Amino acid sequence: MARSQLVTLLTDFGSRDGYVGAVKGAILSVCPRAQIIDISHDVPAHDILAGALGLSAAAPCFPPDTLHVVIIDPTVGTDRKILVGRFGRHVYLFPDNGVITFIVDRFPAESLNVVLPPAPVVGRPGSMTFHGRDVFAPIAGRILLGQDIRKFGPQPASYTLLDIPAPTQDETRITGQVIHVDRFGNLVTNIPAAAVMQKWPNVEAVRATCAGRDAGRFAATYAFVAEAAPLVLFDSSGRVELAVNRGRACDSLAADVGAPVILRAG
Amino acid sequence: MARSQLVTLLTDFGSRDGYVGAVKGAILSVCPRAQIIDISHDVPAHDILAGALGLSAAAPCFPPDTLHVVIIDPTVGTDRKILVGRFGRHVYLFPDNGVITFIVDRFPAESLNVVLPPAPVVGRPGSMTFHGRDVFAPIAGRILLGQDIRKFGPQPASYTLLDIPAPTQDETRITGQVIHVDRFGNLVTNIPAAAVMQKWPNVEAVRATCAGRDAGRFAATYAFVAEAAPLVLFDSSGRVELAVNRGRACDSLAADVGAPVILRAG
Amino acid sequence: MARSQLVTLLTDFGSRDGYVGAVKGAILSVCPRAQIIDISHDVPAHDILAGALGLSAAAPCFPPDTLHVVIIDPTVGTDRKILVGRFGRHVYLFPDNGVITFIVDRFPAESLNVVLPPAPVVGRPGSMTFHGRDVFAPIAGRILLGQDIRKFGPQPASYTLLDIPAPTQDETRITGQVIHVDRFGNLVTNIPAAAVMQKWPNVEAVRATCAGRDAGRFAATYAFVAEAAPLVLFDSSGRVELAVNRGRACDSLAADVGAPVILRAG
Hints:
Three copies of one chain form a homotrimer.
Chain A: E1 6-11, H1 19-30, E2 35-40, H2 48-58, E3 67-71, E4 82-87, E5 90-95, H3 101-106, E6 109-114, H4 131-144, E7 168-169, E8 173-181, E9 187-192, H5 193-199, E10 206-210, E11 213-217, E12 230-234, E13 239-244, H6 249-252, E14 260-265
Parallel strand pairs in A: 1-2, 1-3, 3-5
Antiparallel strand pairs in A: 4-5, 4-6, 7-8, 8-9, 8-14, 9-13, 10-11, 10-14, 12-13
């Protein structure tokens, strides 16, 4: 880590208040040369699954040794652990609530340690509710300065992963569900592109339904169907996605996270 | 371009997902010293006109040789072209859909070339739908590293400009329309300040209507009229703007993009 | 200031338009080595109090000599003053409208001067309405280049502070009000944590009401009460805050800025 001072931030702090600025300032106060890159601060409040998806979409694109700091932390201040680990080429500092799930899927942990922060100052307001500023940021600064991430604390006996429902298959169908609605209203599902390609080498023969409604057929990109028409595609993270060209599939299909999605030939 | 590593991003990716982070990571993976500046990621989805206005408001303010990357690209993955050009002191990388319109108005192209990206990896999910990460970002990184922008591909036979309706004049009136509603609810019109000043050297004699409603008279700035009162002014990009002091003109005048605006003396 | 090129931005410009990008470009055009950090651009339009709270939450976390530029400026273009001052370890450039109130509370002014900008170019559109780009940014650039902030203009005879209502106490109660609703729907009050701790050494005995509704009891952090249950806590800036675990107190308590908050033992 000695040479990279690149650190990304992914939080659900929103952009209206001073919270994100406080975290950035606290990092820079420890490591003034930190180069801070925002991944997102508009993850829906307390939405660990959305944060996990955003993290896995963005983090692996960064240069080796980038530090990724994730602060989506609805149980801040409880005895939930804060973890630091190296997964593949990157270092992640995150609350132990499953936000690391899709990173673990692709990059096995090379190291993982509990962060034991300095004892909190008794009676200092906020030290229980703003670990972003008071724990994550100073720890991040010390990592950027080169501190060995394996020395922050012991290895955890276990750590939390999200329980994402797996899609099911029978002879004629793959059945999954919507796990995310993105900014464009696209519906991201839990169905891996690989499973579809294995089952149906010719995906053009496949049609989709979502919560009982026709969700169209596979197309390589949005504008290959008529405006306002639905389509199915492999998204940029390797999942099946339902979309509407220049429209919002979540509205057209009246679907949200949890809606059932069925793919079948015919 | 050798010495500047300044690159701006203007997209409609929103700030909730990992898309913007993926683009930033992919740029930094090619050019780790890139200095990435966000112009906006909250351009309304697929809104090329809004993006074109945001680009022309912000881009010319940057230092010479800044690279501006624009990814508002509803036809991503089709045969629409990706272009790179030098307009005035800056370099622009953008989809050929008219988003460059207001830059071209002010800065003639010194060079313009089609970007021929490396052949896509067959079967790699996402290569058709996320050119921001898979094409724009690596090309941007190579430009920042000093690659000659005239060598990415051939000059295009033509390129796309938005068809913005021109205002009309008769003896007593200038008639235009609303082309943008900004964050404050201000209504930006297609009427150039210069046309008004030429027709009426004394703008204080001019009054405006918008969709038939009284939109007030010219004032030099918002707080020169009473709170909640309407006013007309020359905006910071040289267009006529309708506003309401500490209010939202789009609400007070019940007007949106396309609403007719009439200026007349009296 | 010679060595720090760190500058933060706090505005109500939103993130949809090109306004923020224009300010960043104009700063970098004067000081290309500026390191620009966003605090927030989503302060509600014209909301000086929200801006003042965001500034005081974030700015003091930054390294010494950071320059903080605040552009929440509903009376832009009038004779309201623009001020530059050193408060504690930091430099602030801001419109004289009270946005500095909570910084002054904690850090007495070491210097304070009126910024006399270069005379505006007569007839240049926008010079009256976009001081962010045309005045604040170039002045910020010159400060980052090392210009002495005491030489921009005279000391002001006085400057504006917000008139925040003070909480009141009687034998059994502290009565205050909501002064801010944050991104999570938490209700920030004007009641200082210190006043509560002084009156009731055992805060666990205290209960809160907000606009007549039960707002719960003190807890050290959100997840120490049941999901959807209300709680009272000391927020990260030392104020009393009303919250709902994984919920939105502003909705549960149907409360907004101005709602009365009463703390009492029992």
